[in-house]
Amino acid sequence: MVSFDEETAQKLRTQVEFYFSDSNLPRDDFLSKEVRKRVDGMVSLQLVCSFSRMRVLLDISRGKIPTFVVTEVADVLRTSDFLKVSADGLRIGRVTKLSKPKEVLEIVDRRTIAASPFEHDTEMEDVVTFFSRYAKLNSVRLPHHVGDKELFCGTVLVEFSSEQEAGDFLKKSLVYGGVDLELIPKREFDKQREARSKELEYSVPRNKFQRGQILRFTLRKIARAEKKESLLVDDKADQLVVPAWSSCEVFKEVFDRFGSVRHIEYSGGMDSGYVCFKNARTATKASSAVEFVGGLIVKNTFSVALETVDEEMEIEVWRRVPLSAKQ
């Protein structure tokens, strides 16, 4: 049997309370869906124990959570005034039902502030310890970067117990790691984040690799058909003979209809090559369109198909793109 020390037990209880809290549950689509599956709002405790943060606390990196561990966690959670545990210890839920999630989120946001800058390798525990010196906290979040979900954005979201406390906190002058912190209301952070997200969505990084903008194209022979509108691809040909086109312009004309093309990598006589579009959005548009029509016509003789490539190959092709084409 497993036995948790007092510190671990407290962390487990705090973590599960956070999962079901007003701060998290309205934002957690997966857990909210699980809660709605039952009238009593109870969720499998074994499922909750399998969440990534719980696995860290339980020191179980993979595999099914053993029943005896779930039982011990249930005993710990029975000491919570916020949570309720089923008699058999297999399900967990809130004591009070979450009502009107949208209104709850609005209240939570009003009592939340955004603090920055923090290093990208900042640990949650360090942040919690720092802000806990000044007030009682409901929750602390480390949002991901809008351009990379694997990275912390450098801004911490701190939720207080009341809107008044959040307002008072904004007036403070704090220093973390030798750097003055900028404190703003969460609504201002949301506006900045939305603007940055749109900026990234519609802009193209200069000289920077962008996943999804490179596709592989393949030539296939078009079989003769009585009707011109019929596009038949000859997949039975033993060998595809492709003219030794000396210029890539023949393909650029084909792909330009979908948006700007940065570069085309192709050697005359080959039956395949790579096209690098201006951005991933254009590449997706081209790929979807080509799939819909069944191929693009080149010189009334060949059909061009597009396919995605894995990240390793995409990076390798990007390295071969001339610097002038990356501007």
UniProtKB/TrEMBL annotation:
One of its GO terms (cellular component) is ribonucleoprotein complex. PROSITE patterns: HTH_LA, XRRM. Its main location: nucleus. GO terms for biological process: RNA processing. SMART domains: LA. Keywords: Nucleus, RNA-binding. One of its GO terms (molecular function) is mRNA binding. Residues 226-327 form the XRRM domain. Residues 2-102 form the HTH La-type RNA-binding domain. It is found in: Nucleus, Nucleolus; Nucleus, Nucleoplasm. Gene3D superfamilies: 3.30.70.330, Winged helix-like DNA-binding domain superfamily/Winged helix DNA-binding domain (1.10.10.10). InterPro entries: La_dom_prot (IPR045180), La_HTH (IPR006630), La_xRRM (IPR014886), Lupus_La (IPR002344), Nucleotide-bd_a/b_plait_sf (IPR012677), RBD_domain_sf (IPR035979), WH-like_DNA-bd_sf (IPR036388), WH_DNA-bd_sf (IPR036390). Binds to the 3' poly(U) terminus of nascent RNA polymerase III transcripts, protecting them from exonuclease digestion and facilitating their folding and maturation. PANTHER family: LA PROTEIN 2, LUPUS LA PROTEIN-RELATED. This is Uncharacterized protein. It comes from Microthlaspi erraticum. The lineage of its organism: Eukaryota, Viridiplantae, Streptophyta, Embryophyta, Tracheophyta.
